[in-house]
Predict the 3D structure of the following.
Amino acid sequence: MRPVQPQKDGPRSNNEITAPEVQLIDAEGANVGVVRTSEAIAMAMEGGMDLVEIAPNSNPPVCKILDLGKYKYSAQKKAAEARKKQKVIEVKEIKLRPNIDTHDYDVKMRSVEKFISEGDKVKVTMRFRGREMAHQDIGLELLNKVRDQFDEIAKVESTPRSEGRQMVMVIAPR
């Protein structure tokens, strides 16, 4: 049974390159051509740099003479920058009742507007208690009012639907 090699992160470099010949690109970015791997490693060591496999799937593999530490560092910085620019869309929830007062409604709608402007989806939940279940049409009217109010800045992702004692609608930014 062969010993299992630990999985290495990043590209192969120097003695890890197994191909007998490689397409070599020197430190300035000029194409040297097809060279034996041992010669390419010697050329890299001569300049105090590393031979790094850039395109391992081509035939022969493309390798470049560069500083491996700087290469890994710049790749790590690029990945961190990409993660920083990524926006995770959250689903915020606003709970309403059918007999909500106008001021309370306005306060909740300001929250909905803030969430949508931040790029988050909003789940508007209408909760029914007791005899309110007999008047679900009032709740549906209120959800339609919310939909119409945010028609310019948001689109309805899921129309109002009943789930037991509550009615749910999801709106997302346009």
About this structure: The mean pLDDT is 88. The first helix runs from residue 37 to 46. The radius of gyration is 30 Å.
